[in-house]
Write a structure and sequence with these properties.
By secondary structure, the chain is α+β, with helices and mostly antiparallel strands. 26% of the residues lie in helices and 26% in strands.
């Protein structure tokens, strides 16, 4: 079950759930096509920006990813959440317990899992589709951004973490923990990543904005 809130969807077991829902019908009784109906020019510019980044950092480098994208709902950061804006469940200094597999025996440890992690998009369609999907759960006026992370090489990803491709959708990746680590180490790594991500602040979308 994917749990919704006023801010975002938890990533626990997100592989098939969110990618299915992004492009299929309605959720919670709202028509997702109308979330940004008065911001079509911004959406168009956003798509062009994402596509340009993919061409520059993936196709030219010939790498598998090169650049990845993530939806950021204010006031949250690219990889960390603010208390009261993280959905259901506990929050550990910005890390949601539903995003990573926290040990039940010792909550100070995060266990390796290819089915848990922060959700990232690899294509224009998935990045914009995710923004539309998550935007449908927001209160009117909530600001929604797209952030990107340029991966120069494999060393760009912190030790003990890796991108795991969704087996049901090649456009979707999870930033997973592949080796058990202390939660304080995970928080440090996510802060490090957040500092290296850029937010397209000039192309901010606003949920259910009037014309």
């Amino acid at each position: 079950m994917v749990e919704g809130s006023g801010d975002e969807i938890c990533a626990c077991n997100i592989f098939s759930h969110i990618t299915d829902k992004i492009f299929k019908g309605n959720a919670m009784g709202k028509d997702k096509k109308k979330v940004f109906q008065h911001q079509l020019k911004t959406l168009e510019n956003l798509e062009e920006k994402i596509n340009a980044l993919i061409i520059e950092h993936r196709k030219r480098r010939g790498s598998q990813l090169g650049v990845v994208f993530r939806t950021v709902i204010e006031p949250n950061k690219p990889t960390l959440y603010e208390q009261g804006h993280h959905g259901k469940g506990a929050l550990h200094q910005g890390v949601r317990e539903c995003d990573y597999k926290i040990s039940t025996a010792d909550p100070n440890w995060v266990l390796a899992s290819n089915e848990h992690g922060l959700s990232f998009s690899a294509t224009v369609d998935h990045a914009v589709g995710t923004m539309k999907f998550l935007g449908g759960f927001q209160k009117k006026g909530t600001r929604i951004n797209c952030a990107y992370w340029i991966l120069e090489d494999s060393e760009s990803i912190p030790e003990g973490m890796a991108f795991v491709q969704d087996p049901d959708n090649p456009e979707h990746y999870l930033l997973a923990v592949i080796r058990d680590m202390k939660i304080t180490d995970l928080i440090y790594k996510l802060k490090w990543i957040s500092q290296r991500m850029a937010v397209m602040s000039g192309l901010t979308l606003e949920a259910y904005k009037n014309a």
